[in-house]
Amino acid sequence: MNNSHAFVALLLVLPFATMAQTKTTKTSTTTKPTTTTTAPATQQQTEVTEDLDPATGKVIRRTTRTINVPAGTTTPSSTATTSSSTEEAPVAAASDAQVTSFLRQKTTVSTLSATGLLKAYEYFIERVREDRSNWKPTDWNNAAAVLSSLNGRYQQLRSSFSLDDKLTIRSQQGEFQALRTAKQISTSVSDKL
Q1: 180 domain residue, yes or no
Q2: Is 8 inside a domain boundary?
Q3: How many domains does the chain have?
Q4: Helix ranges (DSSP H) in the chain
Q5: pLDDT score of 46 more than 70
Q6: What does the alpha-carbon distance between residue 58 and residue 92 come to, in Å, rounded to a whole number?
Q7: Contact assessment for residue 24 and residue 13, using Cβ atoms and an 8 Å cutoff
Q8: Residue 80 burial (CB count, 10 A)
């Protein structure tokens, strides 16, 4: 029965988790405007799109595109993504003191067993569910740092977990990403209203 709940949870979270797996940040730079005799003044604008690995925050793919736009205009997407890219900076793993504070129980991540790590993930996602409504971007970043610490230990113990345990952990990771992305979208939409 428990396995079917984990499977259903995974199926529900999977679409959100796949969207949250790559973070795209766009940075636009404007070069000197050029003019031609047959067309009005234009300027070249270069758009760089970077896909980041969600686990490490490193760039896994970079795409550059140059377009001509009328002089004096900026693309709306460049201003929107520039402000959010400062919030989306890769977060380092949390210290044991930060993890202990977040989980509200004494935790030394490097000594967690497979069973202890499963419980830590459970406490983590419960805390996120309970407290997320009042969180600011710094709180989300702190939670991401704690998750990064847990994920680091998970990579060390990965072979110790059964398939069901791995699915449970992945669904909790995906749920966190889905909740965080939903909050970012909600904030972005409310800022524009």
Answers
A1: yes
A2: no
A3: 2
A4: 2-21, 76-85, 96-103, 114-131, 137-157, 163-192
A5: yes
A6: 12
A7: no
A8: 14
Final residue before a domain boundary, out of 66, 83, 100: 83
Residue 107, both tokens = 């935790």
Range of the domain at 104: 91-188
Indicate whether 132 and 162 sit together in one domain: yes
- On whether residue 4 sits in a domain, the answer given is no
Reported as a single tens digit per residue, the pLDDT across 73-102 is: 655 444 444 334 434 455 678 888 999 989
* φ, ψ dihedrals at 180, nearest 5°: -65, -45
Least-confidence region, from 34-43, 112-121, 122-131, 159-168: 34-43
Name the residue with higher pLDDT: 47 or 158: 158
Tell me: do 28 and 64 sit in the same domain.
yes
- How many residues does this entry show for the chain? 193
Q: Is the pTM of this model over 0.85?
A: no
Written as six digits, the tokens of 98 are: 């930060």
User: What is the DSSP pairing of strand 42-52 with strand 23-34?
Assistant: antiparallel
Query: What residues are paired with 65 via a beta bridge?
Result: 47
